[in-house]
Amino acid sequence: MMWLKFALRNIYKNRRRSAATILAVALGFCSISLFHGYTQETYAGVATSIIHGGGVGHLTVFKQGFSERGRLEPEKYLFDEQEVKKIQALVKSISEVLLVTPRLNLSGLISNGKTSTIFLAEGVVPDDDARLRGEFMLKGGGLDSQTPSAVQVATDLATILELVPGGNAVIMGNTFSGMVNALDVDMRNTYNTGVDATNDKFIRMSLEHAQLFYDTQGADKLVVLLDNIQHIPAVKAQIQALAKKNGLDIEIKTWDELATFYHQLKSMFDMIFLFIFTIVIVVAVMSVINTMSMTVIERIREIGTLRAIGVRRSGIKWLFSVEGGALGLLGSALGVILTISVHFLMKSMAFTFIPPSSSAEVTLSVQLDIGFMLVLSLLLILLALLSAYFPAKRAAKSPIVDALGHV
Amino acid sequence: MTIIELTDVHKTYHLGETLVKALRGVSLGIDEGDLAAVWGASGSGKSTLLNIIGLVDEPSSGTLTLNGSEVGDMSDNAKTDLRSRYMGFIFQNFNLMPILTALENVMLPLQVQGISALEAQDKALNSLKSVGMEKFSQHRPDKLSGGQRQRVAIARGLVTEPKLLICDEPTANLDFENAERVMDLMCELNEKRGITFLFSTHDTRLIDRVKRIIYIEDGTIVKDERK
Ligand SMILES: Nc1ncnc2c1ncn2[C@@H]1O[C@H](COP(=O)(O)OP(=O)(O)OP(=O)(O)O)[C@@H](O)[C@H]1O
Ligand SMILES: [Mg+2]
Q1: Where are the beta strands (DSSP E) in A161-316?
Q2: Which residues form the pocket of ligand 1, taking CB atoms under 6 Å from any ligand atom?
Q3: CA of A333 to the centre of ligand 1 (A)
């Protein structure tokens, strides 16, 4: 208590220098927490665009082994009609689940009569798909359950095949039983997959039409939509438990396991964050080290006096550590105020920008992460405390007569 | 009764290659109730002697006995606690804490001992009263004159009721009038309350008022005169 009074008065006495140090800590705090808030916002935005815009959903249920062998022997890892119904009913019974929808992927050749090329397609339940995508619905509407033969063609593939909306093409391939099959498809519109490698191959169609192509009633996966991204681990465990109880051999993938892009983006942002974090922390802490070293040197005679009148070495270390810690605390407190101010300023100004590989305007905003700010404050207080502790330790060790000798 | 006893104390400073022999075999006892002045020229070793007696410096050789027990091998914490309990210090430059008021400065040695603020405040006010500074209890040192500062410093030195008050040239930074008043105060405290003072000086005007003069020359005691 006594040392705290000492510390605060000394901070006030050197208020100009203290203010500069507190400001350095506060600006460091603010820039780190704002950048952290921005990355969190970005992760959340990307997650939403993958889950909804990419139609990946929160969880995907496959037959056990699909991820290793499914591509080679798709028919072996197919859920049949009964299994699809059973899983849908089971998963639907979990209260956090909004939607369970079957899907079937297919591949083969697509032809416009003159040219043919390979294609990859995903068969989806049109109404479920609309629900999953919500506001991310493709321009020109999606598929509809009234016309199962309607397809959406990736833009580059449409160019290759000279397809225009309203035109049609033929898809060809083998059914699971090995028969050659061909179906007419009606082009509804085009869409951009966002990736060059897939933009000349992909089409999207109704599940009904996809099943017809493979001559099956089954699906190779079921996509699950939840009410909240936070519920993923709990629901995943619940589905696993339910499946086990009902003798279903399944594997479940979360959205981020299926979206490698997300991990690349996140690790890149995390690297940048770590880089900025380190630099800013070093600058802020250097400022405290500088201030506290100067303070200790200036007050060496005071240290000698305190030691003479009976203050132990540990007391000297406390005295200055408390002062350093108080600088860290004041800096962090100001940093919190700055961060919150900037947060609301940005909210009220509503800056917009167009992110790369996107056509829509996005509002620049940062999340307020109270937990993160708390941890950051504690870290800064601790570092500030240590910045004072070491010079104080050295001063406390020096002979009292030497300390008193400085006039 | 002897408070502190020095036996054949030497102190040698190393200044690079050269050795400075600040004390060469000093044997001395300070008795309760002494008002003793250490008298000597500049560089004779007065401060060194007082620092060793005050347990803020260590002899190079020889023994130091406080209250009958040897101090030599004690830990730093043990010596610090002895200083807190038995010693009071008054410095040439007053050495008050600039950020504390006169009262808080005087409270400080008590609070270091772990005495509550309330109790410390009572005692500190009494101590300030005994040096005639109670009116200035809320003043910061920079608002006080040199003489007033030294009186506050004496109050701080007295407040723990130490066995021995060590004062290294307490009047050197004061004009004659203030030096006289500080000297008056020390004599009064010694006479009325039996407080033991050991101070160094080379001011001839103060010397005839003390009970004991320890003459020091080149690190040795040449005469120890009691009146
Ligand atoms: N820390 C030190 N390092 C080296 N030499 C020292 C140190 N302290 C004192 N000395 C030397 O020891 C001798 C005695 O010094 P001391 O300070 O005790 O003298 P003093 O009588 O108090 O002098 P003054 O009247 O000037 O205060 C001097 O020669 C001084 O130079
Ligand atoms: Mg001296």
Answers
A1: 168-174, 180-191, 202-206, 221-226, 250-254
A2: B 13, 15, 20, 22, 40, 42-48
A3: 49
**Cβ contact (<8 Å) for A312 and B93?**
no
d(CA B96, CA B84): 16
Q: Does domain B2-226 have CATH number 3.40.190.10?
A: no
Distance CA B180, CA B183 (A): 5
Ligand 1 atom 17 nearest Cα: B47
Judge: A311–B100 Cβ closer than 8 Å, yes or no: no
| 0.80 exceeded by pTM | yes
Burial of A193 (0-12, 13-18, 19+ CB in 10 A): middle
Q: Rg of chain B over CA atoms, in angstroms?
A: 17
Indicate yes or no: CB of A312 within 8 angstroms of CB of B98: no
Coil, helix or strand at residue A166: coil
Q: Which residues of A touch B156 (CB under 8 A)?
A: 309
Which ligand is the nearest neighbour of the Cα of B39?
1
Residue A9, class by beta-carbon neighbours within 10 Å (0-12 exposed, 13-18 middle, 19+ buried)?
Answer: middle
- Collapsed DSSP state (helix, strand, coil) of residue B216: strand
Residue A319 alpha carbon to ligand 2 centre in Å: 29
Tell me which DSSP letter residue A137 carries.
Answer: P
Q: How far apart are CA B117 and CA B109, in angstroms?
A: 11
Instruction: Report whether A325 contacts A388 (CB < 8 A).
Output: yes
A242 phi/psi in degrees, rounded to 5: -60, -45
Q: What is the pLDDT of residues A6-25, one digit of tens each?
A: 899 999 999 999 999 999 99
Angle between helices A300-308 and A370-397 (to 10 degrees): 70
Per-residue pLDDT tens digits for A179-231: 889 999 998 888 887 777 888 899 999 999 999 999 899 999 999 999 999 99
Give the tokens for residue A376: 């950051």
φ, ψ of residue B83 in degrees (nearest 5): -60, -45
Residue count of chain B? 227
Interface ipTM above 0.90: yes
β partners of residue A252: A61
- pLDDT digit string, tens, across residues A260-304: 888 888 999 999 999 999 999 999 999 999 999 999 999 999 999
Residues around the ion ligand 2 (C-beta < 5 A): B 47
Say whether A309 and B97 touch across the interface (CB within 8 A).
no
Q: Is A405 on the interface with B (CB under 8 A)?
A: no
Torsion sign, CA atoms A354, A355, A361, A366? negative
Q: Which residues of B touch A13 (CB under 8 A)?
A: 98-99
What is the least distance, in Å, from the CA of B212 to any CA of chain A? Answer: 25
Main-chain phi, psi angles of B45, to 5 degrees = 115, 15
